[in-house]
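From the shared-data thread, chain only:
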Amino acid sequence: MEFVMKQALGGATKDMGKMLGGDEEKDPDAAKKEEERQEALRQEEAERQAKHARMEAEREAMRQSLRDKYGIKKKEEREAEAQAAMEANSEGSLTRPKRAIPPGCGDEPEAEEESILDTVMKYLPGPLQDIFKK
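Structure, as C-alpha coordinates:
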Protein backbone atom coordinates (compact mmCIF):
# COMPACT_ATOMS: atom_id res chain seq x y z
CA MET A 1 0.00 0.00 0.00
CA GLU A 2 2.81 2.31 0.87
CA PHE A 3 4.43 1.67 -2.49
CA VAL A 4 1.22 2.59 -4.30
CA MET A 5 0.91 5.77 -2.31
CA LYS A 6 4.48 6.83 -3.09
CA GLN A 7 3.89 6.25 -6.77
CA ALA A 8 0.65 8.19 -6.75
CA LEU A 9 2.11 11.15 -4.92
CA GLY A 10 5.44 11.10 -6.71
CA GLY A 11 8.07 13.31 -5.06
CA ALA A 12 5.52 14.87 -2.73
CA THR A 13 6.16 12.22 -0.10
CA LYS A 14 9.59 13.67 0.59
CA ASP A 15 8.08 17.08 1.29
CA MET A 16 5.28 15.54 3.37
CA GLY A 17 7.82 13.56 5.34
CA LYS A 18 9.72 16.73 6.14
CA MET A 19 6.53 18.49 7.20
CA LEU A 20 5.56 15.59 9.42
CA GLY A 21 8.92 15.70 11.16
CA GLY A 22 10.69 13.00 9.20
CA ASP A 23 14.39 12.86 8.52
CA GLU A 24 15.71 15.34 6.01
CA GLU A 25 17.94 14.19 3.26
CA LYS A 26 21.47 15.38 3.73
CA ASP A 27 22.94 17.24 0.79
CA PRO A 28 26.51 16.09 0.37
CA ASP A 29 27.57 19.50 -0.97
CA ALA A 30 25.64 21.53 1.64
CA ALA A 31 28.75 22.54 3.59
CA LYS A 32 30.54 23.56 0.41
CA LYS A 33 27.55 25.58 -0.80
CA GLU A 34 27.19 27.30 2.58
CA GLU A 35 30.88 28.21 2.58
CA GLU A 36 30.58 29.65 -0.95
CA ARG A 37 27.52 31.63 0.10
CA GLN A 38 29.33 33.04 3.15
CA GLU A 39 32.33 33.97 0.99
CA ALA A 40 30.03 35.73 -1.50
CA LEU A 41 28.42 37.69 1.38
CA ARG A 42 31.85 38.71 2.71
CA GLN A 43 32.93 39.80 -0.77
CA GLU A 44 29.74 41.85 -1.28
CA GLU A 45 30.21 43.51 2.12
CA ALA A 46 33.82 44.39 1.28
CA GLU A 47 32.73 45.87 -2.07
CA ARG A 48 29.99 47.87 -0.33
CA GLN A 49 32.44 49.26 2.23
CA ALA A 50 34.93 50.17 -0.52
CA LYS A 51 32.14 51.95 -2.44
CA HIS A 52 31.13 53.95 0.64
CA ALA A 53 34.77 54.81 1.38
CA ARG A 54 35.17 56.15 -2.19
CA MET A 55 31.97 58.17 -1.90
CA GLU A 56 33.07 59.66 1.44
CA ALA A 57 36.49 60.54 -0.02
CA GLU A 58 34.74 62.37 -2.88
CA ARG A 59 32.52 64.23 -0.40
CA GLU A 60 35.52 65.21 1.72
CA ALA A 61 37.35 66.50 -1.37
CA MET A 62 34.29 68.63 -2.20
CA ARG A 63 34.09 69.91 1.40
CA GLN A 64 37.79 70.78 1.36
CA SER A 65 37.43 72.71 -1.91
CA LEU A 66 34.60 74.72 -0.33
CA ARG A 67 36.67 75.34 2.81
CA ASP A 68 39.56 76.56 0.68
CA LYS A 69 37.29 78.74 -1.43
CA TYR A 70 35.65 80.49 1.52
CA GLY A 71 38.53 80.32 4.02
CA ILE A 72 36.72 78.09 6.50
CA LYS A 73 38.68 75.92 8.92
CA LYS A 74 37.70 72.44 10.01
CA LYS A 75 36.19 72.09 13.46
CA GLU A 76 39.15 69.98 14.59
CA GLU A 77 41.61 72.65 13.40
CA ARG A 78 39.75 75.40 15.26
CA GLU A 79 39.66 73.35 18.44
CA ALA A 80 43.37 72.51 18.13
CA GLU A 81 44.25 76.20 17.65
CA ALA A 82 42.16 77.19 20.67
CA GLN A 83 43.79 74.47 22.77
CA ALA A 84 47.26 75.56 21.63
CA ALA A 85 46.46 79.18 22.52
CA MET A 86 45.29 78.13 25.99
CA GLU A 87 48.46 76.08 26.52
CA ALA A 88 50.66 78.94 25.29
CA ASN A 89 48.99 81.35 27.72
CA SER A 90 49.41 79.02 30.67
CA GLU A 91 52.93 77.91 29.81
CA GLY A 92 55.15 78.20 32.87
CA SER A 93 52.16 78.69 35.16
CA LEU A 94 51.47 76.28 37.97
CA THR A 95 47.81 77.16 38.26
CA ARG A 96 44.93 76.75 35.87
CA PRO A 97 44.52 79.40 33.14
CA LYS A 98 42.64 82.54 34.09
CA ARG A 99 39.22 83.08 32.68
CA ALA A 100 38.35 86.20 30.79
CA ILE A 101 36.81 88.81 33.07
CA PRO A 102 33.68 90.43 31.66
CA PRO A 103 33.74 94.23 31.40
CA GLY A 104 32.50 96.01 34.49
CA CYS A 105 33.66 93.24 36.82
CA GLY A 106 37.28 94.33 36.98
CA ASP A 107 39.31 94.88 40.13
CA GLU A 108 40.13 98.48 39.18
CA PRO A 109 37.67 101.11 40.45
CA GLU A 110 36.45 103.46 37.77
CA ALA A 111 37.78 107.01 38.04
CA GLU A 112 34.47 108.66 37.28
CA GLU A 113 31.54 106.95 38.89
CA GLU A 114 28.27 108.66 38.21
CA SER A 115 25.41 108.53 40.62
CA ILE A 116 21.87 107.93 39.49
CA LEU A 117 21.08 111.59 40.13
CA ASP A 118 23.86 112.69 37.74
CA THR A 119 22.55 110.33 35.07
CA VAL A 120 19.00 111.67 35.42
CA MET A 121 20.27 115.25 35.34
CA LYS A 122 21.78 114.65 31.88
CA TYR A 123 18.38 113.92 30.39
CA LEU A 124 16.52 116.87 31.96
CA PRO A 125 16.03 120.07 29.97
CA GLY A 126 18.37 122.96 30.77
CA PRO A 127 16.03 125.03 33.02
CA LEU A 128 15.17 121.99 35.18
CA GLN A 129 18.87 121.15 35.52
CA ASP A 130 19.48 124.67 36.86
CA ILE A 131 16.69 124.29 39.46
CA PHE A 132 18.09 120.98 40.78
CA LYS A 133 21.71 122.22 40.87
CA LYS A 134 20.78 125.01 43.29
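The chain has a mean pLDDT of 77.
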